[in-house]
Amino acid sequence: MANKIKLSINGYPIEVNEGTTMLEAANEAGIIVPTLCHHKDLCVAGNCRVCVVEVSGQKRLSAACATPCEEGMEILTNSLKVRNSRKHIIELLLSEHNADCTKCYKNGNCELQKLASEYKIMTQDFIELAPLRKYSIDMYSPSIIKDDSKCIRCQRCVRTCAELQGVNALTVAHKGSEMKITTFFEKSMNAVVCTNCGQCVNHCPTGALVEKNYIEEVWEAIADPTKHVVVQTAPAVRVGLGEELGFEVGTRVTGKMVAALKRLGFDSVLDTDFTADLTIMEEGTELLTRLKKVLVDKDKSVQIPMATSCSPGWIKYIEHMYPEYLDNLSTCKSPQQMFGALVKTYYAKARNLDPERIVSVSVMPCTAKKFEANRPEMHDSGYRDVDYVLTTRELAIMIKQAGINFMKLEDANFDRIMGESTGAAVIFGATGGVMEAALRTAYELVTGREVPFENLNITPVRGMDGVREASVVIDHPLKAWAFLDGVELKCAVAHGLVNAKKVMDAIKKGEANYHFIEFMACPGGCLGGGGQPIPTNPEIRQKRAQAIYAEDAGMPIRKSHENPEVIKIYKDYLGEPLGEKSHHLLHTKYIPRNRY
Amino acid sequence: MVTNYQLKRVDFIFRNENDYEDVLSKTIARKPQELINELISSELKGRGGAGFPTGLKWKLSSESKADEKYVICNADEGEPGTFKDREILSKVPFKVLTAMAVCGHVIGAKRGFIYLRGEYKYLKPELEKAISEFAYYCKEIKFDFSIHIFMGSGAYICGEETALFESMEGKRGEPRNKPPYPTNSGYMNKPTVINNVETLAHTFTIFKYGAKRFYDLGVQYSRGSKLFSVSGDTPKPGIYELELGMSLADFVDEFGDGDTKAVQVGGASGFLVPRKKFDVTAIGYQGKLTGISLPTGGSMMLFNSSRSMYNVLDNYLEFFREESCGQCTPCRVGCQQLIKGIKAVKRGEKNAKYLDKLLRLTETMQLTAKCGLGQSVANSFSSIVENFREEMIY
Ligand SMILES: Cc1cc2nc3c(=O)[nH]c(=O)nc-3n(C[C@H](O)[C@H](O)[C@H](O)COP(=O)(O)O)c2cc1C
Ligand code: SF4
Ligand code: SF4
Ligand code: SF4
Ligand code: SF4
Ligand code: FES
User: Fold this and answer.
1) Would residue A330 show up in a list of annotated catalytic residues for this protein?
2) What is the rounded CA–CA span in Å between residue A342 and residue A438?
3) CB-based contact (8 Å) between A442 and chain B?
4) CATH number, domain containing residue A21
């Protein structure tokens, strides 16, 4: 048990554990202290100084986020001294800031704006510095826009990229008034080792880092009568979208989301979950084939562990950082890209549409998917497979623009074809979900029996620990898989690239002997993706995860191979997993990239 | 010219004493607690600028429990107009090395570092020679302590102790949050004593001659002697070891050119004292002596009547604007506002009242900046603006 200390905040006595910061203590006491550089996901920086508080008897103010409480302290969070200083600091930040809120993408969801509005900073006494500065704006990345004129230099992005992602694409350069956030040699974001994961976007308090949005392009496509606009929605979107539209964190809004998409005017509202199930069929088969080649045929050209490939941030990361391991990646495209390839082939054929006329839009919890859709490989349908990628946030904006009262919508169902899914597909949205879905199917394929976990819930791969391990012993397999009898299938799950790095380094050192590893670029998996509603933090991600698993538990079918549409597509179109058509449409290859 | 001469020149620091072996072996034969008491009773305060009691610093580090501890000699000497540490390291390096080793003995550290200012690279070969000679002696007496040089990167902010640790750890030189203090968590998050070069040299004197010799110099709260780097409008610029507690009037009598208008005590982060306050200003740490009393890292810059105080202030502010690490809002943006602000007043774009807004801004900077740099911008700003307001406007 930690030692308790007693102190008072604004005159109210409170008892906290030793080591508690003043900010945490204030929050416990129900007092809000404004912050900007502080973020629950990140280490303490203490650089914005808006959280300053007064401690009786001390001349200087303390940064509440960075200072531990001490016995007997009398803390004042709203004394005149504090208020005046805090106001000065906000004014200073604004003087350096290109505060054209009405033209800013973050208008309405900006921590700086909120603070300025709370403190009613109506005039600018200080000299405007922003117009005198040569701020640059980087729009070259297909995923992210970086606008230095909106940056308050809180370094949240820098810490995010370093601590959560281990990528270090963003750094602090120069000092004094010239200090700024930049990239390697100040190159544009698309020319450096950046995974496009968007975690920096999710953690930026202002409009300095935002997704590149394709809202207008999508509206135009919808309005064009010659186009057939198809939209697919990723599993994690349905547990995040509600947050932007008035629902509690962790509310599932699948039916309302579908209804809203229909009202927006999409010609067909489909589900990425369908291709998530398809991914399991392909990837599961690929895993078993690899195992056979390694264990039975002793084929040295085949690599295990096999790593999942549905997270495009992770893909770009491994291409840059561990290019020698690209053969370990599953060749499966991500569900988004499988969907895109099928929309302009299988779907077009089934619906008797000219693929040329189809505009394929996806709604993703992810900014890296924008980059992925833009990759030159992703044209297997003969067209660009996915035309526009919207984030969960962009979809929320469109729903608001359309004047839809989201809360009042009646639930609707996905269209067919390519709208049917299973619980296994839904859990793709959470870290560990792909692994769980794959095991549900692979185990049954091999043994003819369900995975030996209660209610199909493979709990060892669930949770929020950065790296998790699990193993399943294969017992009495079917004849075709006899070589797997007694084999202990060793699996690992890593989310957040800093954890992916840990696993990869262990593999490199020969310290890990897994068969199958799920990697997700973002903390918590897609539900914590860079395109999800802001803010994000561990509690929010936990609640979204609960929603995902609740959605799974409520699905009538919970195993990918039982999805009737999946069965049908193999029968009618693809043939079999890893078959020739699959190979052409659903699989891809990777490119080694430089480390700098 | 010289009237009422009361400055006491002292000669401890640079006195050549070729007996470090003797001092070292005798001192480390004594118990750490005894040495701490000796230091505490000398009332030596840090000569790097902040004036923290050295004995207490060593005591706190000795009480911190850790598998590893460090001693760091801060030779970053970045304050404009200061060049005393360079002289100590080139003239009497063994005093500093001995003091570091004694500190290692007291707190339980086996490794020491000299963080040497980048521009002092030319000192490195000589210093390395001294270090290897010193290492040889330590080996001879079976005393386990090694000293290494770490070259600074040339940023002023890296002289700030926690930024210095960051820089040694290979990170960007940005000051850390305090607490924790270095005595608990410094370099590599281990308990660390970091002392200025001169502070360490004084401990040599104290261990050799006893605390009393040191304590008898100076005045209450400000004991001992100190090196001053005298520059500006003076016929005799240079480094002088003087007893603490002198009045600024006496100092100007000795070093002025007969036309001294003001003295900047303590460099850019110090205070400007105008002529009318020379009499009531004493140089030392804390405590009211004859009037106000100013701590200093040792820089004393004299200005005669040909100098524009506006330009002086502008120079200091430019220095801060450039040398601030830029991480915290009050310092990064505050410095820019101060510069732009005084310019606007000078040009008549803002009225004279704007100076008061700027004075309040420096108050905020003092209250909220993360480190000593931003906190001390108020010193020169307010002392110059308050005393030479006309020069700011016309
Ligand atoms: C901006 C800034 C720069 C500093 N530069 C130096 C320096 O160059 N040399 C130095 O000894 N102390 C410098 N200091 C003070 C150190 O942080 C620290 O207090 C000192 O090294 C402690 O040693 P002392 O107790 O012996 O004075 C600086 C402080 C600040 C805030
Ligand atoms: S970043 Fe925030 S404060 Fe700045 S313009 Fe955008 S909304 Fe306004
Ligand atoms: S880009 Fe955003 S997160 Fe990064 S320092 Fe600027 S304001 Fe902070
Ligand atoms: S998108 Fe991801 S990898 Fe790129 S800078 Fe942001 S956090 Fe780093
Ligand atoms: S006060 Fe200035 S130098 Fe110190 S941490 Fe803040 S910005 Fe950096
Ligand atoms: S929130 Fe505490 S200093 Fe930024």
Assistant:
1) yes
2) 21
3) no
4) 3.10.20.740
